[in-house]
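Worked example 4.2. Below are the chains of a multi-component assembly; read each line carefully before continuing.
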Amino acid sequence: MHTQSITLAECLALDQADSLRSLRDLYQVPEGLIYLDGNSLGVLPKATPARVAAAVAQEWGQDLIKSWNSAGWFQMPLLVGNKIARLIGAEEDEVVAADSTSINLFKVLSAAMSISEADHPEKKIILSERTNFPTDLYIAEALCKERGFTLKLVEADELEIALQEDVAVLMLTHVNYRTGAMFNMLAMTAAAHNVGALTVWDLAHSAGAVPVDLNGSEADFAVGCGYKYLNGGPGAPAFVWVNAMHTNRFWQPLSGWWGHSAPFEFTSDYQPATGIARYQCGTQPILSLTALDTALDTFLEVEKLGGMPALRKKSLALTGLFMRLVQVELSAHEFGIATPLDEEMRGSQVSLTRSEGAYAIVQALIERGVVGDFRAGDGKFQADILRFGLTPMYTRFVDVWHAVRHLKEVMDSNEWQQPRFSHKKAVT
Amino acid sequence: MHTQSITLAECLALDQADSLRSLRDLYQVPEGLIYLDGNSLGVLPKATPARVAAAVAQEWGQDLIKSWNSAGWFQMPLLVGNKIARLIGAEEDEVVAADSTSINLFKVLSAAMSISEADHPEKKIILSERTNFPTDLYIAEALCKERGFTLKLVEADELEIALQEDVAVLMLTHVNYRTGAMFNMLAMTAAAHNVGALTVWDLAHSAGAVPVDLNGSEADFAVGCGYKYLNGGPGAPAFVWVNAMHTNRFWQPLSGWWGHSAPFEFTSDYQPATGIARYQCGTQPILSLTALDTALDTFLEVEKLGGMPALRKKSLALTGLFMRLVQVELSAHEFGIATPLDEEMRGSQVSLTRSEGAYAIVQALIERGVVGDFRAGDGKFQADILRFGLTPMYTRFVDVWHAVRHLKEVMDSNEWQQPRFSHKKAVT
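Applying the procedure described above to all two chains together yields the following structure tokens:
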């Protein structure tokens, strides 16, 4: 528990000393905005508009179908996958960028269930965390219903006890979307393997946010998102990683032509491609994939400046600073901190709780140009969350300082209690 | 069988008299190219670059997550679906644009199988055409294996005999990708219903190419492609239509959060949305979807000029002209015409066959700026195909005339036998 505050001047000095501060110049962070929602939608890399415009005007407009070869469209899912691989501890040709996270989870969970069924037909439990991201649970629920499995949901701290011999697959999101709490991938994978279970990891809030070592952890399957910390643009294609030992033991029903060994021979029977290519299904949205590809080229600039370890160090400093300022400056306002204080256990966000007004406070901050987001609790186990993503690529220490200052002003002045902030806008 | 040719001057006159000729000005057809591959990748609408650039720079770059509401990103799959609906005989809120054709086929075939299983558990056959597009067969093959069904493939003219009481689902591509032969949707659907089977139609080569009346045909399910005749750009999202009588009898395992009744309440159990929204799964690639949306706005300009019936009339005139010129001008060169001469039975392409040289001839034409494509036969039932898509939105009668003139020159001069045309380039 911190008791000492930190001044704006000290934060300015931290930014001056930040060896990664040049990276922010690669992004188009809107003037005057303190954008702490890069864990929902990452900002625009400056290189993206020209690259997408060229894909539209030249590759599509002028070169048309030729671009499947000449512009590399055919290979793009695998080439983009190779760039993502460098951020998550995967090897070349182990990752493919395609479809959405939900659909990719369907592919890998299907495959994991099939492998488990072949090796351990008696295991019929998919184990996950109750506060896992809902779409992961929906996909698992449907696959369980379809295949006679049971989806067992427990709290994070009950996982170890629930990991029994009947578990076929442990399916977890590495960094929790609500709290920012991070599992120890190595330890959880070892615990799963210890009872003969396979692991499926969702890296939506990990890829580009924290160092991930899939092969080093001996994980089995992973999926992740292209439009959060990777800055691929709204709805950018997601990705799939499969441990090389499982890749060719494939069975999943999304067996479209792009996963075929020879898609352009148009044979009537399905022969899966060798390797990760078989986790493709249909044609990918090339314009969106081009934006993701560009974003990764920008992201990988970090490799010249210390890579993911350097980014992690800055991320921890940012989240640490945020929590320290909240503890000291906002002690009168009854916020809880849902994010673990332990550095080993947190991702790159800070989540606050408050028994009253979480939604209105987030709205008041947005009006002041401090963009975080609100995630509703369930009124029982889960509290309402004020969520602040601290993307280390482009967030400054002064941004954190000003964000907490605004939060303090919103609270001290009771600004958040103005009626206009409490009306929830319908999302659709 | 035509015996009389037609002159370039007569084709120029046809273009002059064409009430749809202004539509070509809405598209960026590359200078000097005769592009007859719009059935693979449609050309760039002139409105698209600015619209995509604004989505990148303003909606994403400046407005960030706010754009989910302010730029209508949330509703875009349904709004784009409503535009497609006008071209395929569907009502508002019956179509959603999302994912790829392969994935959408998985959704609707899954749902059709589940409905059939509920109503007629004894039916265990999916019936389709042997030369259906392979990815459709791959998806069906996998679902059959998963659920204990059998995929039965027959030739098109054997379908009527094969349609027996044991058939659960008749799955057909409306216009065959190889030959351009078109099924009578009304008659085939009636024949399927007559034996208690449901119909799943793939409109990949129909939407925007020929009039389609899904509701008038009392069809059950349909999917289709955004990047062929609709000009949505490379890998543009595909679409799904479901007959309103089936929509809420949904069961398919791709039950991601976007198909949930309240995706942003983040409940841990899946409650499907009412209506076609439930056929969504994950977040869509907004940049690619924006390009498709723009393309549809351009496409729907045809409604001011007579709509799909007028487009159909021009399409038949173009394909008719192409075939007539081939019959008369190329009679010495032993081409077969795989596309039905009967107007009722053909889509918007002309497919030629030749016992020798199909690949090389297509390459020689491409070198001359006449872009069609080659589709390999299987060496047994199917011949090699030279495929020419005659997109009525932007193809002129003079383009057809010059295309056949080039083909004649390629054949008369034996140009196609030059070695450089016969080496197949690897697609990947």
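Take a moment to check your reading of the output against the notes. The mean pLDDT of chain A is 95. Chain A has two domains: 8-46+307-421, 74-301.
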